[in-house]
Write a structure and sequence with these properties.
InterPro entries: Ferritin-like_SF (IPR009078), Phenol_Hydrox (IPR003430), RNR-like (IPR012348), YHS_dom (IPR007029). It holds the Pfam family Phenol_Hydrox. By secondary structure, the chain is mostly helical. The protein is built from 23 helices and four strands. β3 and β4 form a beta hairpin. α6 runs antiparallel to α10 and α9 packs parallel to α12. The longest helix has 31 residues. The C terminus is likely disordered.
Length: 527
């Protein structure tokens, strides 16, 4: 009787090769360049796709096992949080507005990323890159689902979370993250990976996830902390894909260097502008603060990002354009953004407020060179106006940047007292920008950005009213008509936090002292 032959178990490297390269083949009925046309038209030259290496060497069977274990733990925590009324354990009802901003502006981006990586996973010629992109596509879909499930618990008790997908398509400030990802999705596959995997995931993602998840932990929101940790364990793999993609392109051909540098310049600046929303959240929307935006920027960008670009210098890559201006802006952008949202609070589906005195002191400590000089006097004036029953709501429409789609609220480099405004003429039309960086991005691809869907222009054109609305009717209020088109519950989703339903209900549930009443201005606006 013959002895049974024991097959030797493949090592990790050989098994990964069998489950990626071993599943690929060259086409015969049609040429490869016709089946995979998208990874060539950008000008990136790839000579050997087998040089693509995944340091994790993750295969699909292992992927399902790891993710399944994480899902069980995550949903057990979410269920326990709900059963124990975890929403009553948060520090302050104001904190929930950070979650509103997250589900409105960040969660939809996970779904956009899922679509983008699914597209990339089809159109790369190399099997290793295709497999890595396909698994990240599944990751992003999972993030979208788990974030929605975790935050849906708060939707039962608080306003401003009931239809984030419609708001993402319509509300003025959400066009900022939407335009970022639609810009990336409409690029080629290599530019998409540079935009999302490298510039956003590798260079800037810590500025997004660390403040949100650390802020959640400090404010008693363990449900959000848990989905954050579950997602962040995937982010380490995503960051690796980003740096691998960049180094792979740079090592394949010297001609790729100027193309990659141009993309890094563009997407660093676009990502920096997008993170203005996170800067505002971190400094103003967390009742218990973790660290300031300035401290986060210095740690995760100036130190870590600076080391990264020093490492990439051997390939001929320098720091992105706008690096100096972005580092200067760490002292200003959160204050300028919150001041803007406070003024336009009637048109945003979350609440705003004036920081309390101890919070103003914290901001003074964290921004010793700028806050007391430029921003504290504004907030003190707005607080006095509110106490006098004149809570300020700006009903005029601001000029938007044609690239990042943020209102022109930022100031000139070196002069925080002067609004920055740049202008370009293209084919007889004038276009406006918040910075040199956004102007340069536009001028490099004007045909792309002249098509931008800008909320203010669309409102003025009458595109943001429901069918049948007559703007010429007597007593017509354009703001209320736009908010109705948004799908907002006026007076519940927006206006000032003081006196809001969220504040009153939260105090009642916890048995706290009755909150202060709404200001006369808010009462008048609600009526």
């Amino acid at each position: 009787m013959d002895a049974p032959v024991i097959k030797k178990k493949l090592g990790l490297k050989d098994r990964y090769a069998a489950m990626t390269r071993g599943l690929a083949w060259d086409t015969t009925y049609q040429p490869m360049e016709k089946v995979f046309p998208f990874d060539q038209y950008e000008g990136i030259k790839i000579h050997d796709w087998d040089k693509w290496e995944d340091p994790f060497r993750l295969t699909m069977d292992a992927y399902w096992k790891y993710q399944g274990e994480k899902e069980k733990k995550l949903y057990a925590v979410i269920e326990a949080f709900a059963q124990n009324n975890g929403q009553l354990g948060i520090s302050d009802a104001r904190y929930v507005n950070a979650l509103k901003l997250f589900i409105q502006g960040v969660t939809p981006l996970e779904y956009y990323a899922h679509r983008g990586f699914a597209h990339v996973g089809r159109h790369f010629t190399g099997a290793g890159a295709r497999v890595a992109a396909q698994m990240q596509s599944i990751d992003e879909l999972r993030h979208y689902q788990t974030e929605t499930h975790a935050l849906s618990h708060y939707n039962k008790y608080f306003n401003g979370m009931h239809q984030p997908t419609q708001w993402f398509d319509r509300v003025w400030y959400l066009s900022v993250p939407k335009s970022f990802f639609e810009d990336a999705l409409s690029g080629g596959p290599f530019e998409f990976l540079t935009a999302v995997s490298f510039s956003f995931e590798y260079v800037l993602t810590n500025l997004l996830f660390v403040p949100f998840m650390s802020g959640a932990a400090h404010n008693g929101d363990m449900s959000t902390v848990t989905f954050g940790f579950s997602a962040q364990s995937d982010e380490s793999r995503h960051m690796t894909l980003g740096i691998e993609c960049i180094k792979f392109m740079l090592e394949q051909d010297p001609a790729n260097v100027p193309i990659v540098q141009k993309w890094i310049d563009k997407w660093f600046w676009r990502g920096y502008r997008l993170l203005t929303l996170v800067a505002m959240m971190q400094d103003y929307m967390l009742p218990k603060r973790v660290m300031s935006w300035k401290e986060s920027w210095e740690m995760y960008v100036e130190e870590n990002g600076g080391a990264l670009f020093r490492d990439l210098a051997r390939y001929g890559i320098r720091e992105p354009k706008g690096w100096k201006e972005a580092c200067e802006g760490k002292d200003h952008i959160s204050h300028q953004a919150w001041n803007t949202f406070y003024s336009y609070g009637a048109a945003a589906p979350f609440h705003t407020w004036i920081p309390k005195e101890d919070e103003l002191r914290w901001l003074s400590e964290k921004y010793p060179d700028t806050f007391d000089k430029y921003y504290r006097p504004r907030f003190e004036h707005l607080r006095e106006e509110q106490k006098a029953g004149r809570r300020i709501y700006n009903k005029t429409l601001p000029m938007l940047c044609n690239t990042c789609q943020i209102p022109l609220l930022f100031t000139e480099p070196g002069d925080p007292t002067k609004i920055c405004h740049r202008e370009t003429e293209y084919k007889g039309e004038k276009y406006h920008f918040c910075s040199d960086g956004c102007q340069h991005v536009f001028e490099d691809e004007p045909e792309k950005y002249v098509q931008s869907w800008l909320p203010v222009q669309q409102i003025y054109q009458g595109q943001c009213f429901k069918p049948g609305v007559d703007p010429t009717a007597e007593g017509f209020d354009p703001l209320l008509a736009v908010l109705d088109w948004y799908g907002m519950n006026v007076g519940r989703d927006n206006f000032d936090f003081e006196g809001s339903e969220d504040q009153k209900n939260f105090a009642t549930w916890r048995g706290d002292p009755a909150p202060v009443s709404a200001t006369a201005a808010q009462q008048g606006a609600q009526s």
